[in-house]
Amino acid sequence: MENDELVQNMLLELRRGILSLAVLSQLGKEQYGYSLLKALSDQGMEIDQSTLYPLLRRLESQGLLQSDWRIVDEARPRRYYVISAQGKAVLTKLKKEWSAMTATITQMLS
Amino acid sequence: MNLIDKYVAEVGKHLPLLKGREDVEKELKSTLEDMLEDKAEQAGRPRDEAMEIELLKEYGSPQRIASSYNPHPYLIGPRMFPFFLMVLKIVLTVVIVIMLVLSSIKAVTAFPLFAADFMQVIMQGFGNALSTAIAAFGNVVIVFAILERILPEKEMGDFSNEKDWDPASLAKQPDPDMVKRGDLIVEVVFTALGLAFLNGLFNLPVFTKEFSQFIPWINAVFLGEIILDVYLLVTAKWNTPGRIAKVIIEAVGIAITVILIRTPNLTLFTNESLLNFIKISEEAGAAGLAAYYTTSITLIVILIIQGIELAKALYELLRINYRKK
Hints:
The complex is a heterodimer of chains A (110) and B (325).
Chain A: H1 2-26, E1 31-32, H2 33-42, H3 49-61, E2 65-70, E3 78-83, H4 85-109
Antiparallel strand pairs in A: 1-3, 2-3
Chain B: H1 3-14, H2 21-43, H3 49-59, H4 62-67, H5 81-109, H6 115-150, H7 157-160, H8 181-202, H9 209-212, H10 215-235, H11 240-262, H12 271-280, H13 282-324
């Protein structure tokens, strides 16, 4: 029973690192926060709102994302995010690192 | 104003941001509206207040949401923390030792030496040591909290970035103009503490009016030292203006000490009051005499130390300019 909490905490730490990667990967085409959340969730990556929005802000302040307010389909104004050129370059590098890392870990765990 | 607007306003009130507050509020409102629409669709009925309440309950308390936007959740961040601990340990040890020594001196020289008074002096000593230690702790925290915010993030590499560390640098002569940030931070902390401590000390009734006219000058030298250190922390390297400022500060310090030595009646331990002491009791007279000489000797020791510091500062200033040619 007590291990549950430990596992939850470790999972949280593991996820914290890969969320940026997940978000960058999904912003090849522009999305607003809520649609991105649903897109991530549809693919099995559940993320809390209170984690996603600050993360988007941070990635944008680091120059990896661009955003602007727009009104599409006469709906309410939404902030659309899309990956920047720098973001793409970073994502390419991260992808490589990720494959190497998963290969190593998979081998270790098998 | 509906519930969502009130909720968004509440989040905005708690946001720790200076910039982009409106943006965050607008985005939050837009998201909540989207979610509410989804909810209504799923339920198959138009949105109502019960639905809004359920949504906001799910979303979380405004304080929690607002705090998730905090870009700087640390008073003293992990990069500074090891240094903070180190400095804290040194400062607390030094402060407590000084306070206990001062109290012991006071206890020994206290007269008349009735047992009750003696106990009182000792208890007061412990009390003072404790309160000074707490005050010192607070000062160290304040200095580090300020440094945490002043120092640019990348510059902190010197403290924590193991990647830049080259084992070959152990063999290499260090660049004499490079500033050691750790040393500087320690110096800033101690100068600030010294400033606070001396100003507390100056309030003791042993110092005369003749002495108190020097206090602003002494404070100015200390402040100059702190400003120079912070400047060096930011520039990370000694340069000519920095060296000149150092020489000036040291020279002013020496000037003050010299004038102090030549000024009579700095403390109450003058010849006149000494005569009174001797009349009261011989032991007290001896203690007073010791205190009288202590003042002069202390000043002379300070003068020697300052002289060495000035010579070093001058040498470095000349060397920096010599190398440029």
